[in-house]
Amino acid sequence: MSSYPDDEEGVGFDGNPSSFPKDFGYGFDGDNDVSLSTGEHKPRILLMGLRRSGKSSIQKVVFHKMSPNETLFLESTNKIVKEDINNSSFVQFQIWDFPGQIDFIDSTFDSDTIFGGCGALVFVIDAQDDYGEALNKLNVTVTKAYKVNPNIKFEVFIHKVDGLGDDFKMESQRDIHQRATDDLTDAGLDHIHLSFHLTSIYDHSIFEAFSKVVQKLIPQLPILENLLNILNTNSAIEKSFLFDVVSKIYIATDSTPVDMQSYELCCDMIDVVIDVSWIYGIKEEQPDANAFDEQSSSLIKLNNGTILYLREVNRFLALVCILREDNFDHKGIIDSNFLSLREAIQQVFELRSKAQSSLLTSPDSPIITNGGGAVSPESPLSPSSVNTS
Asked: Please, where are the H alpha helices in the chain?
């Protein structure tokens, strides 16, 4: 899947729901990585683990569209690699890939700088190897990071599970979970929460896991989930995802459980839309045009009576819905509700942008923050705009 050329600097919201301001970013409390041009706070994600655990492969596959087979030729990381994930994707943050041999006890290691502005720490464990040493490193890493920044989200990727049987996968997850938790309890840090994910670069599990990581850095997540719940209820939709079309990370979904097969279908649909758009949607006289724009939409009917429906939210985001074919008879209502959803999403991030600007310019601003997200007395999310008839 191709990425898109960057927006021109200084272009703000123009009143069109398909055009989002560049400075509404995710943001989170305590981040010190600020874009000087926009004042945007970018979340920082640290990627840690032992050597050859698969850290660099994960980054290349998820954010650079490298084929999993090509990662076999990647060299081992021998220094901290810092990268801005901002290839015109909605998902914009810094990711720091750490070499496995780094020593946190070394006096030259600046813990305050490394962990002070961190939003999430992803620790990768090779499930096909003896993970005793990895668990010890995990305990040291989490303990050190928590002392510097208690607000860090700790994520453990039990990686390379594609070569394991289902029973062994679950047994490994239970064992790693139990041992990691016991180590923290012994250290008196049983209040630290670790999230565990079974991952592989050879299927969609790594995208699904990174989706969960990124969502924890989005302060507007509860509002987006509520919007999708309202859309589903009033449009007879069974499942809906709000996707970043570049990375195929879903930044929000409704409150129903995520089925891995449904998620994979939605990812494949996005690939099809982008690929077909690049082949047939770009005119020769417009070589720099976007393959994904406000006219992008897709409808796929499966042979089991299920419909996949994709609509463009903006050039970075797509709404992908799963519903029964019988419920698609009222397509006009679904489209009308989608327009209301798109406008509400725009207002959410526009409000966030204004709140950040107000907080930066006036410490006595009346805007209230809750978990990093701005709350306005007059919410733009009134269900009255949703069509149910």
From this structure: 55-64, 111-116, 132-148, 166-186, 205-215, 221-235, 260-280, 331-361
